Amino acid sequence: MVKYFCNNTDIRSTWDHVVSAFWQRYPNPYSTHVLTEDVVYREVTADHRLLSRRLLMKTNRLPRWAERFFPAGMSRSVYIIEDSIVDPVNRSLTTYTWNLNHTTLMSVEERCIFQDSVEQPDTTQLSREVWISSSVYGFSRPIQVGYPFSSRNAPTEGSCKTEIGLLKISKNVVPPIIVAATLVHPLG
């Protein structure tokens, strides 16, 4: 079973600042779980889009209920691929991320689109979609319920912490004010 979440958020900061902060996310004191970040590929296309692929290594503590099932010798580090497309003409940044290892236990795929707002000046719209699945019998439901986008967690708590953190650390960027965060539709 795959769980799908969709979230839309308005960040009160210009698209230029958000994109600049995006590239300065790691390392920072708000994301100590991110151990490494390596650029694997980067290209500027003929239509002026910047394509990038990065490899991230993260570590997070397992939920208590899962610790007893996770083999003691198994690595707690997760390798994540992040593909991004910066389109300066249409003023959008699109990211696709997915984990490379531990995919039997939990597979997470995420797409984020940071788009310059036409209606609201100095605002960037963030649309986020997440697909979560587990192949381990009995793990699927607890993992899906416990993910930060679950309906029991407020969207501003789970979905905007990264954006707030990355904008706080960006040089010359005023921390954003989240003006709207709407959980569009959790399906399950």
Automatic annotation (TrEMBL):
Instruction: Offer a single GO CC term for the protein.
Output: mitochondrial intermembrane space
Location of the PRELI/MSF1 domain: 2-174
Domain of life, source organism: Eukaryota
**InterPro entries linked to this entry:** PRELI/MSF1_dom, Slowmo/Ups
Q: Where are the transmembrane segments?
A: none
PROSITE patterns, A to Z:
PRELI_MSF1 (PS50904)
Fetch the PANTHER family from UniProt: MSF1/PX19 RELATED
Q: What is this protein called?
A: PRELI/MSF1 domain-containing protein
**What lineage, starting at the top, does this entry show?**
Eukaryota, Metazoa, Chordata, Craniata, Vertebrata
